[in-house]
Amino acid sequence: HVQLVESGGGSVQAGGSLRLSCITSGYSVGVHGMGWFRQEPGKEREGVASTGGSGRTYYSDSVKGRFTISRDYAKNTGYLQMSSLKAEDTAMYYCAASPFYNLGSRLYVLRGHKAHNFWGQGTQVTVS
């Protein structure tokens, strides 16, 4: 079975940077890819970025140019490097994995929060 654990969240001033990590087990980020989603209180979870087995990536318009998704295949770990952080980036961030969907696609970022994913527990990012 698949398990995911996020880490790296915290509080940072606007304009700062953070790197989130997603350690997976029972899964291959190289083969299947992975994604990042976030959720603010009272709002639906939304897609941030994803990368597929082919290496393709997709970013939401709100983070494109500021966030970078990457993978360490040997460690089966995914990362989200966040730069030029804004107050509106404040949210709980979740990593997601699935062997059943086309990760790294626009559709997955747009609708993947409703898909049958394996989810991490979340890590809070607060920008002030």
Your description of this structure?
It is a single chain. The chain is mostly beta strands and 128 residues long. 8% of the residues lie in helices and 45% in strands. It has helices at residues 29-32, 106-111; strands at residues 3-7, 10-12, 18-25, 34-39, 46-51, 57-59, 67-72, 77-82, 91-97, 118-119, 123-127. The strands form two sheets. Strands 2, 4, 5, 6, 9, 10 and 11 form a seven-stranded mixed beta sheet that branches. The longest helix has 6 residues, at 106-111. The protein starts with a strand and ends with a strand. The relative contact order is 0.31.
Number of strands: 11
Averaged pLDDT, please? 95
For the sheet with most strands, the description reads: 7 strands, mixed
> Distance between the terminal alpha carbons, to the nearest Å?
38 Å
Helix content: under 10%
Shape, principal axes of CA atoms: globular
Radius of gyration, CA atoms, in whole angstroms: 13 Å
Structural class: mainly beta
Question: What share of residues are in beta strands?
Answer: 35-45%
Order of helices and strands: EEEHEEEEEEHEE
